[in-house]
């Protein structure tokens, strides 16, 4: 199905309530090439959804998990992947907000809508379905919905496991979107783009005329730039310790397209560039327990620092709005997709990201 994006998808036959056999990229150990295997995908249980993945991409979180950077996450065999889009194949008992054929985006940071956390405007971390890199089974019964042909369990990842033609998720981790929206582009809202744009719109609430400095010009950093451009920031400064990103790397041209006005490497200057004040928002996953190297007094003089998970976006509540903003042209997602490959070449896509050659390589299933 590679390359087609007209949002008209052939639906599988009626497999509701039955086990589906399909292809998946299985990780058997840290750093080992992913193996395209035939796996069994169980039907969804109560408050679960089984979806057919049409597009998936690779994020640095997938890369670090595949490399086994955190020993506590080394659960194998496992199906990685958390940026994707697809269609609902079947739903389990109790699911009311989705049905077969709906266009959906999986989210690693779920939203049940009922817990005290979801009902609070100050957090986007659901009590039960928040992001948890150590979780490897379903909430419902503590079991996996994936297995080998011999019936041995294959474990889940980040509430999603999208490196598979079919996957089962808690309904709290699935967002329904309008069928008119490009599923290919909506893949990017599962993680990186929503994290960056959300940090600007939600966490920092950047206003028109603001100055924004971005430290680290990967996909998330560029998403911050796109969010700042959409909010009419007057100056968007890109900062990275890799000077190649300002010469031969793809980040420079894309950064300019996303509104960056200045670029510099802090290692190339011998004195502070400007007075440091304002709000710092930290994003991303930090696999080591190293502490932030600053003195508490550095937070005086109008300085603040906060952490942001998934850009403080409440997935099921806010992602449909993000999708509409993309339709209106407020957000431009085209520049993020630097490569497209068939799913069978997933290991090649990993190498592109590992070598800094891609922002997002879209895989067609």
TrEMBL record:
NAD listed as a keyword: yes
Domain called Alcohol dehydrogenase-like N-terminal: residue spans: 46-178
Molecular function GO labels: alcohol dehydrogenase (NAD+) activity; S-(hydroxymethyl)glutathione dehydrogenase [NAD(P)+] activity; zinc ion binding
Cofactor: Zn(2+)
EC number(s) reported in the record: 1.1.1.1
GO cellular component: cytosol
Domain of life: Eukaryota
Any single GO BP term: formaldehyde catabolic process
Catalyzed reactions: a secondary alcohol + NAD(+) = a ketone + NADH + H(+); a primary alcohol + NAD(+) = an aldehyde + NADH + H(+)
Pfam families in alphabetical order: ADH_N
Entry keywords, A to Z: Metal-binding, NAD, Oxidoreductase, Zinc
Enzyme class: oxidoreductase
Gene3D superfamilies named among the record's database cross-references: Medium-chain alcohol dehydrogenases, catalytic domain (3.90.180.10), NAD(P)-binding Rossmann-like Domain (3.40.50.720)
Summary of subunit composition and partner proteins: Homodimer.
PANTHER family, per database record: ALCOHOL DEHYDROGENASE, ALCOHOL DEHYDROGENASE-LIKE 4
Record-stated family: Belongs to the zinc-containing alcohol dehydrogenase family. Class-III subfamily.
Protein name as catalogued: alcohol dehydrogenase
Originating species: Thlaspi arvense (Field penny-cress)
Lineage, broadest ranks: Eukaryota, Viridiplantae, Streptophyta, Embryophyta, Tracheophyta
């Amino acid at each position: 199905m590679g390359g087609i994006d007209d949002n008209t998808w052939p639906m599988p036959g009626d497999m509701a309530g039955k086990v589906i056999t399909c292809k998946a990229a299985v990780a058997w150990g840290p750093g080992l090439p992913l193996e395209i295997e035939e796996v069994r995908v169980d039907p969804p249980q109560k408050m679960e959804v089984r979806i057919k993945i049409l597009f998936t991409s690779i994020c640095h979180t997938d890369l670090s998990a595949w490399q086994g950077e955190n020993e506590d996450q080394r659960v194998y065999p496992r199906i990685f992947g958390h940026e994707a889009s697809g269609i609902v194949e079947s739903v389990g008992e109790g699911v009311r907000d989705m049905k077969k054929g709906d266009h959906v985006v999986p989210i690693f940071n779920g939203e049940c809508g009922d817990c005290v956390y979801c009902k609070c405007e100050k957090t986007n971390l659901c009590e039960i379905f928040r992001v948890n890199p150590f979780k490897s089974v379903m909430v419902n019964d503590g079991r996996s919905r994936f297995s080998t042909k011999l019936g041995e369990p294959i474990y889940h990842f980040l509430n999603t496991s999208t490196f598979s033609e079919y996957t089962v998720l808690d309904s709290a981790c699935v967002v329904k979107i309008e069928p008119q929206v490009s599923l290919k582009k909506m893949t990017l809202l599962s993680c990186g783009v929503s994290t960056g744009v959300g940090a600007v719109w939600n966490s920092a609430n950047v206003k028109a005329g603001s100055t924004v400095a971005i430290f680290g010009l990967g996909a998330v950093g560029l998403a911050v730039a796109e969010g700042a451009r959409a909010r009419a920031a007057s100056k968007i400064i890109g900062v990275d310790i890799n000077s190649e990103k300002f010469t031969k790397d793809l980040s420079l041209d894309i950064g300019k397209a996303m509104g960056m006005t200045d670029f510099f490497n802090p290692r190339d200057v011998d004195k502070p560039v400007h007075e440091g004040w304002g709000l710092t928002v930290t994003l991303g996953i930090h696999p080591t327990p190293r502490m932030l190297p600053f003195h508490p007094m550095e937070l005086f003089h109008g300085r603040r620092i906060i952490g942001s998970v998934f850009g403080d976006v409440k997935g099921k509540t806010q992602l449909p709005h993000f999708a509409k903003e993309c339709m209106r042209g407020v957000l431009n997602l085209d520049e993020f997709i630097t490569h497209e490959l068939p799913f069978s070449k997933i290991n090649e896509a990993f190498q592109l990201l590992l070598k800094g050659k891609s922002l997002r390589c879209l895989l067609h299933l």
